[in-house]
Amino acid sequence: MSANPGSPDHLGPSFPPNVRGMRYVSDPEQAADSTLPAPMPRARRNPGNVPAVCAQCRIPLHIAFFFDGTGNNRDADQPLHQDSNVARLFRAHPLDDEAAGVFSFYLPGIGTYFREIGDPGNTRTGLAMGAWGDERLKWAMRQLDLTLSKYPVRNIEEVRVSLFGFSRGAALARAFARRLAARTTRSNQGWEWDGPKVPFRLYFMGLFDTVASVGMPATASTALSLRVATTRLSLERGLRARGDDAISGPLGLAFGEPGADPTPGNPDGHMDWASNLRIPDLAELCVHMVAAHEQRNSFPLDSVRERQSYPRNCEEILYPGMHSNLGGGYLPGFQARSKGRAEMLSNIPLLEMHRRALQAQVPLEAVGKFHDTSLEASFQIAPEPLGHWRHYMARAGNGGRSLGKGVLAHMRLYFAWRFQRIARLQRAEVPSIDRVRNESEIRARERDYARRKAAAEREMNALRDSPERVAAHEAAEQAERAYHRAMQRSARFGDPRGELARARSENEAAQAAKAAADDPYLRAQARWAGIPGGSVDNMLVYDSQLMRDAKMIRDRVQQGWTKLRPHYAGLVQAYEDEFIHGRGLRDEEIIAFFDNYVHDSLAGFASDVTLPSDPRCIYVGGDFEAEYARIDTRGSEERAA
């Protein structure tokens, strides 16, 4: 696919609405112009005694759904200022107002507590395999149906739905869009809902770095991927074993026709509710923001591209940083990066998504006019990180190329930074002041996280073992047994006295009381799960493995091995520039950009055996993996890594 830029390659406004495909990144300040539509008046919750709509009035209904990312939960994250961009956009939405026809629904991320659907959160199947996703989709559809049922058909001018999502939440938003499409019919006048026959529009989708990984994930095809790195030693052993593997190790991946795949095999993470994530024609505009530096095998990207081209209603924008540098969710100061709320790299894509949503007429509140005034600091970007970001983007290039070529360009700079940092540490026989200060700061923060986590665990355990919760669980078990006995008796002897109905009612009440007793404990568990662990030791392990991978590949190149794949060619070039030719990265602004604002997602995760030399897996329609880096001469697909 050849990019259709339609605009010079510079930092500036996004393309006109009629141009689709790969897009330029907008500068946060240049993009804040006066061309945006005036925001809707701030909505208030409609008092119960006021009629929602007069009998003769016809109004459009604005209904927004916000699907948070895996492990992201607004209730747990917001007090620590580590709520995601999706959660912040939800907070920027007006309060529900029946009279104005404005509604919004927030869905906690997969793997976190969601009381309304019975998801306790922090389950292995949720975090690793995307369980409870279908229940979230069904809950969202129920909210839509219930909202529409509040209005007589004669009062509905049209239904306008917008969807936002991050990570698996973006996958949920895409799956939900397809379910919406299945319930609409197209006519000459547009789309019509199949419940109450009213005009229906899915007018905006705002997605951050879609990851599916539902069912058997792509990492399951790597033989060693089930080894969980619980200690530094197990991480080292797992990476070393993967690095020595003839198929999935660097030598098995680095040479051959362009198209390295660190997760070969049948598992692809597109099972169950994620089996089809294509953006439907029903969607008028889908803006998908992609993380350029993410590598983790467990976070394969689902691009909105379909094989060679983009659908007419889709735009894809490549941003520097890791998965959560794009979608948000990092605690300020984690890994000694972005120490203030206005220094978070994720604020830049947040501001752009907010702008694009306003441009599409989503009734978000304007910056400076939020009903939740505590939100203002989360929609700011400080001058220093913005300056470094601008300098980096000018060096990395911005737009005018395909997704694959863009990723390769960003990764070349990332590898150059990784190697210069390793060399900087190696050259200091006596650790430098900066190194000591940085490492001691990270360790001090990690000790603080450990204290917080221990305190949260004590609170969680106390709530788990509270007499009220224990009693509620015992009563629920007794009521459930009584209900089953009543069902058995009714099946055998009938139920002339209405015993079954009474037992059912008592069981429902007992289960509701159990859920209420569980709620404080599960909220505490969500807070405990949201506190980050250590990563500084993992950083050293990945540095060592990256050096080993690069040397191994370069040695084979020196021995005459040919067909080095583009991703690995960039890796070897960065290694040679730093350690052989002495002309590695010396641009202080780019070094500062990575040092201070781009997190090490591998070290923070360390739960699979992704090699630090791996390319990211990118799906471009179903289970088809993009082989990015150049156009295949046969016109089949862009070739990769």
Overall pLDDT: 84
Number of helices in the DSSP assignment? 18
Uncertain spans, ≥5 residues at pLDDT below 50? 1-19, 34-51, 223-229, 629-641
Shape: globular
Strand content: 5-15%
Percent of residues in helices comes to 40-55%
How many E strands? 13
The rounded Rg comes to 26 Å
Largest sheet: 7 strands, parallel
Distance between the termini: 16 Å
Helix/strand structural class = alpha/beta
Oligomer type: single chain
Strand arrangement across the biggest beta sheet: 1-10-8-7-4-2-3
Entry summary:
By secondary structure, the chain is α/β, with parallel strands linked by helices.
Secondary structure: elements and pairs:
Layout: E1 21-23, E2 59-67, H1 74-77, H2 85-91, E3 102-107, H3 124-129, H4 133-149, E4 156-166, H5 168-182, E5 184-187, E6 190-193, E7 200-208, H6 232-244, H7 250-254, E8 286-291, E9 301-302, E10 314-319, H8 323-327, H9 347-359, H10 383-396, H11 403-427, H12 433-464, H13 467-493, H14 499-530, H15 536-558, H16 566-579, H17 588-597, H18 601-605, E11 618-619, E12 630-631, E13 638-639
Parallel strand pairs: 1-10, 2-3, 2-4, 4-7, 7-8, 8-10, 9-11
Antiparallel strand pairs: 5-6, 12-13
Helix pairs in contact: 4-5, 6-15, 10-17, 11-16, 12-14, 13-14, 15-16
